[in-house]
Each structure stands twice: as structure tokens, then as C-alpha cells.
Design goal:
Pfam family, one: Exo_endo_phos
Keywords: Endonuclease, Exonuclease, Hydrolase, Membrane, Nuclease, Transmembrane, Transmembrane helix
Number of domains: 2
Helix content: 25-40%
Distance between the termini: 49 Å
Largest sheet: 6 strands, mixed
InterPro entries: Endo/exonu/phosph_ase_sf, Endo/exonuclease/phosphatase
GO molecular function: endonuclease activity; exonuclease activity
Length: 351
């Protein structure tokens, strides 16, 4: 038992230490994803070490102390996404002043052809804006019936798993599909008009993740996230960023995004709302997000049931309420963090 505990403890310590290295190579990023799963394993190992405490050597004690330290560190990063933490966005009732905004977002999984399941979810949720990712021409054709309900659209179907479809019931005052960082990886930049006439800036993203065989570095993802974070920081309109960001909530990059943009995360104080993987309950991470400016309140947030994709779809109902702006605040960025964000936003990326 002691040998097994030693091996598992050592592996957990090494993978935890790798995530502390600030480098964009994939191996320093990938172990950030299963932080909750690793925390459970660490706690299990700590209990195991306590059970065999009389037999511990100095080496085993060092492993125990390191495991305990990393467990406490992981708890500090994960705790904000539990109900024990204060909520970052205040709960609000639905409004009767035409300032509600309902958003539906889903990574559909390009090869998934169960179109009817997603269409049913969209109809059931009755969102104002629908944002679909990993959409090829087959998905674009299957979703055509949405155009009767959503007259405004920005469509960029591509068969490389980065296609996107953006449908809006609200008038799009200005909108475009941009390739901010790499050809073949589009994003949405749109201003929509609420029924009361208030314009809202929306960015829809699906950056490229660091995955062996596809992209060994997180440079492209980090660059796109920081470019949008800096835009949101300077934006004078109420603004929203949403989509599959291919990053976990507790990563250094996501935290830097939140600090730089000043946007709020409705997950804080409410839960993980893990969206990937829909196929395996034991390996789930929060990869799909919505962030909003401080002048929004939250009516409802929901992770929807499986729809054939490897991601769960998400639904968020917000209310635009300027009176919330003075009483809500996100993370604040230090000067060196803004500098880091700007450096990441301007780094070179291989096409």
C-alpha cells in the first residue's frame, strides 16, 4: 500500500507542480483541466497516509506535506466556484422593461448529426441569441428553420471544427465574423439592440486549444482571449463574452482574462456548471462560459441535458440593470498583469 501511495502521490505532485510553470507548451496547460479530480485523489492519498502514519519515513512525510500544500492551494482556486463563496453577480427577477437578454450557447460536436435534439433545446429555452460552435455546412442546413424565429444572423460554417452560427432575435446594429488570430478560427463581434433600444456589445469565441496533434502551444488561445479582454476593458457599452473558451475557470489565463476585462462570471458562488465531457461524468471541466459587464444581473443559468454532443449546452438569462454597476465588481488587474495581457495579445502565432 505504501508503494502505491508513494507512486500516486509523486505523480499528483509532479502534475500539480507543472501547472505552476508559466509556459504556453501544452504539457504545462493540460494538467490544469482536471484540478477537481486531482483534488479528490490528493485527499484520498492524504487519508491513506494517515492510515499508515506509524510506518512513514522522512520521504513519505515530505510527500504528505507537499500533497497537503497542493490540496490547500487547489481548494483556494476551486472554492470560488462553490456555493460557499459570495456570488459575483446578483440575482434579479425577470424585468418588464424590455431589458432581458437570454443567451443559448452550444458546442454541437461537428460529427454529431442529432440535429433534432439541439433544435428542441433551442425551442424549449426560447433564447434571444443562439450561438452554435463546431458547425459545418450540414449543421448550417439543418438549422435553417431557426431563421424564421431569428431574422438576424452571422454564419461561418467550416468543416474544421471551428465553424460557427450566430442567430439573433434582437436587431444586429453591427456585426461581423472575424479571424482575430488564425485563418480558419472565426469569432463573432456584434452589437445587438435590446427591445428598449439599448445597444449591447457581444463577442462570441471558440479559440484553438493546446492539443497534441493539433497545436502544441496555447499561444493562439491566449492571444485571442487577451485581445478580447483588452477590448472589453475599454468598451463603453454593456458587454458580454461567451462561447467555448477551451480553458478551465481556475486557470491562470482565465483569471487574467477576468482581471483584464473587468467582466463578471455568473459561476462564482453558484457552481462549476461543467460542460465537457458530456460523455464521461468522471472527467468534466467548465470550458463553456459567459462573462458580462457589471451592469447585468442574473435571472437564471442552466446547463442543459445531453444533446448528442460531447459538450452540454448552456442557457443564461440576464437583465440589464445600470443600478447594479456601482455595487458589483470583478477582479482587479495590477499594472504588471495588464502588461502581461498586452504581451499575450501581441505575441506571434504560427498560421
Amino acid at each position: 500500500m505504501i508503494t502505491a501511495l508513494s507512486i500516486l502521490s509523486l505523480l499528483l505532485i509532479i502534475t500539480a507542480a507543472l501547472t505552476l510553470v508559466r509556459h504556453n507548451f501544452w504539457i504545462f496547460k493540460v494538467f490544469e483541466y482536471p484540478r477537481l479530480q486531482k483534488l479528490f485523489l490528493m485527499v484520498g492519498c492524504l487519508v491513506g497516509w494517515i492510515a499508515v502514519w506509524p510506518a512513514l519515513t522522512t520521504f513519505h512525510l515530505v510527500l504528505f506535506i507537499l500533497l497537503l500544500a497542493f490540496s490547500l492551494f487547489y481548494c483556494s482556486r476551486i472554492l470560488p466556484y462553490s456555493t460557499l463563496w459570495p456570488k459575483e453577480i446578483k440575482r434579479m427577477p425577470p424585468s418588464a422593461k424590455n431589458v432581458d437578454l437570454k443567451l443559448f450557447a452550444a458546442n454541437v460536436l461537428q460529427d454529431n448529426r442529432e440535429y433534432h435534439r439541439l433544435l428542441k433545446q433551442i425551442k424549449d429555452m426560447d433564447a434571444d441569441i443562439v450561438f452554435l460552435l463546431e458547425t459545418d455546412e450540414g449543421w448550417a442546413q439543418a438549422m435553417k428553420e431557426l431563421e424564421a424565429t431569428y431574422p438576424y444572423k452571422l454564419l461561418q460554417p467550416i468543416d474544421n471544427t471551428y465553424g460557427l452560427l450566430f442567430y439573433s432575435r434582437l436587431k444586429i446594429l453591427s456585426g461581423k465574423v472575424l479571424f482575430r488570430v488564425k485563418e480558419g478560427v472565426p469569432s463573432i463581434d456584434a452589437i445587438v439592440e435590446l427591445p428598449n433600444g439599448r445597444p449591447i456589445q457581444i463577442w462570441g469565441l471558440h479559440p484553438e486549444p493546446p492539443v497534441p496533434g493539433e497545436n502544441l502551444f496555447s499561444t493562439a488561445k491566449d492571444k485571442e482571449l487577451m485581445k478580447v479582454a483588452l477590448l472589453a476593458r475599454e468598451c463603453k457599452l454593456p458587454c458580454i463574452v461567451f462561447g467555448d473558451l477551451n480553458d478551465v475557470a481556475w486557470s491562470h489565463t482565465t483569471k487574467l482574462f477576468r482581471k483584464t476585462s473587468g467582466l463578471l462570471d455568473p459561476r462564482i458562488g453558484r457552481g462549476f456548471y461543467s460542460t465537457f465531457s458530456a460523455h464521461h461524468w468522471w472527467v468534466r471541466f467548465p470550458l463553456d462560459y459567459i462573462f458580462c459587464s457589471t451592469d447585468f444581473g442574473l435571472v437564471r443559468m442552466k446547463r442543459l441535458p445531453p444533446n448528442g454532443s460531447d459538450h452540454f449546452a448552456t442557457f443564461v438569462h440576464l437583465v440589464y440593470e445600470p443600478r447594479l454597476e456601482p455595487v458589483q465588481s470583478g477582479l482587479e488587474a495590477r499594472k504588471e498583469e495588464i502588461k502581461e495581457a498586452r504581451e499575450m495579445a501581441t505575441q506571434e502565432v504560427e498560421q
